[in-house]
Amino acid sequence: xxxxxxxxxxxxxxxxxxxxxxxxxxxxxxxxxxxxxxxxxxxxxxxxxxxxxxxxxxxxxxxxxxxxxxxxxxxxxxxxxxxxxxxxxxxxxxxxxxxxxxxxxxxxxxxxxxxxxxxxxxxxxxxxxxxxxxxxxxxxxxxxxxxxxxxxxxxxxxxxxxxxxxxxxxxxxxxxxxxxxxxxxxxxxxxxxxxxxxxxxxxxxxxxxxxxxxxxxxxxxxxxxxxxxxxxxxxxxxxxxxxxxxxxxxxxxxxxxxxxxxxxxxxxxxxxxxxxxxxxxxxxxxxxxxxxxxxxxxxxxxxxxxxxxxxxxxxxxxxxxxxxxxxxxxxxxxxxxxxxxxxxxxxxxxxxxxxxxxxxxxxxxxxxxxxxxxxxxxxxxxxxxxxxxxxxxxxxxxxxxxxxxxxxxxxxxxxxxxxxxxxxxxxxxxxxxxxxxxxxxxxxxxxxxxxxxxxxxxxxxxxxxxxxxxxxxxxxxxxxxxxxxxxxxxxxxxxxxxxxxxxxxxxxxxxxxxxxxxxxxxxxxxxxxxxxxxxxxxxxxxxxxxxxx
Length: 549
Hints:
This protein is an all-alpha fold. Among the domains are: 346-435, Serine Threonine Protein Phosphatase 5, Tetratricopeptide repeat, CATH 1.25.40.10; 438-470, no CATH class. Helix content is 69%, strand content 1%. Helix 12 runs parallel beside helix 14 and helix 16 (317-333) runs antiparallel to helix 17. InterPro entries: RAPsyn, Rapsyn_myristoylation/link_N, TPR-like_helical_dom_sf. Residues 77-154 form the Rapsyn myristoylation/linker region N-terminal domain. Keywords: Receptor.
């Protein structure tokens, strides 16, 4: 490179090239100092004079703003490219290219600078990892979202971050923490849109796991109102799935099947392209569970196989574990205990690998029922069911599933009675009676003791269908206004008429934490073996071949 190319009007201002020479550049009026040995705190004006005395009066010293301008332009370019990557990932995710979309989002996360865009990108990554069944990794993204919302002091962002934390902790089995996060999401400004509906849905789902059926019904009713107001089919599908699970646990199989059917219909509508396939898989699994409860085992198995196929294509490990567990329930109802136990073992191993304590707890309950059936048939002794139910009781107690705890304690009481330990059996019965079973809001008789039709009131309490008077019927409720219907229900509902203690202020939200790799209060569950997985797949493939014939 020549001095003429360096000395151009674009860089140094147009001074003739003959005024620059290597001798002039290296010459120094003061031999004791070098040209670059300037004091950091020196006068800028004197520095400009010295520069002019060396290189000519037409030369100007290069300002520091040039480098800053370059950095700003580079940052804006990175931000623009990151936004384009986010948009491309959203399109790919909608086209069922989830893994490629996540790869693009992770590359965009390294170059994004804007806080709002980073919050949105973390939300996309959170949802993708939840769909994949990687709940612990999704929890990290939710924690980072909460940090950004605190920095920006944005109430809607804080509400979304608390919602994501609640959903992750619910799946990981931390129901108390999930409920606390969901309540604090409600206390922030949710905007009155779909975010508020998702928060009500999460509160309802957690309350359902805790055995608070009236609170769960109240949350589902509020989420249903938001979904209908916002015309949000995705939220509406999730509400019907939750209602179907509520009625199934209360042993009203007809209502459970009806709600699950509406959820499946939403997945088949022309607007189903807007829905995430994960919700469609969830609707299929709920339909299988409801049909199994009603006794239609063949149709339940078909829905379960379809959900298994979609979960294998999408890589949804959580949905796969639940589908295998429901298939085990179907085989148990068919009295095929061997296949049922093999399916439950696969589901337990998958749940343990994912950290999904709810799925693992449900699979353990199914295996415990199989062992109880074998014990009653005299094919095994009382020792193995006693040990397994004791471990299941520890899991259910740590999670907070009160209804399951009551059922396991009653099962343990029968085992202790068979062993001749009447004192231990009496202790288990007293502990089971400590939790009040759900009761009818009109006649105060217990619910879920036997299959029977039920109904819900405008005040979210649940009654027997025979106890529901004409004034609470659906037609009269529709004819009256919402407030008038609720007031009429409150005058005759025994739960609403009873005096209530004032509600305590909400506690402080728990600090976000990173769960360890092993966060189970019980021993290591059975591992997932390749032979068991291959046997489960072969069972489903043979069943599909038989049904096709």
